[in-house]
Amino acid sequence: MDPVLKAEVSPVEFSGLRDNNVQQYCEWQQPEVKNSSLKAAVQKATDFVIEKGLDLLPPTPYALSTKLHMMNAKAARTSK
Questions:
Q1: Which secondary-structure segment (H or E) carries 39?
Q2: Degrees (nearest 5) of the Cα angle 45, 48, 53?
Q3: From CA 11, how far away is CA 36, in angstroms rounded?
Q4: What predicted TM-score, i.e. pTM, was given to this entire model?
Q5: Tens-of-pLDDT digits for all 80 residues of the chain?
Q6: How far is CA 62 from the centre of its chain?
Q7: CA separation for the pair 78, 80 (Å, rounded)
């Protein structure tokens, strides 16, 4: 049996403003699909990510729980 090789993976790094990076990714992704409804879905997802203040990197569990807590608190304030 051959030994298993482990690949080294470097973390993805983005420079610049997070919301700009998200929008640029959307602009790159849309021409990669032909269907107009898929293009619209990419834009909808982009709008959601920007509106919620997220970015392209996966959040740490702490950052995710903090973001969800803030979103829930804001929803509770606006529903009163």
A1: helix 36-51
A2: 130
A3: 32
A4: 0.57
A5: 566 677 676 666 778 888 898 899 899 999 999 999 999 999 999 999 899 888 777 666 666 666 667 777 777 777 76
A6: 16
A7: 6
Single-letter code of the amino acid located at 25? Y
3-state secondary structure of 44: helix
Secondary structure letter of residue 30 according to DSSP = G
Cα radius of gyration rounded to whole Å, the chain: 18
Q: At what angle do helices 18-29 and 36-51 cross, to 10 degrees?
A: 170
Q: Output the CA–CA distances (angstroms, integers) from residue 39 to 18, 36, 43, in the order listed.
A: 21, 5, 6
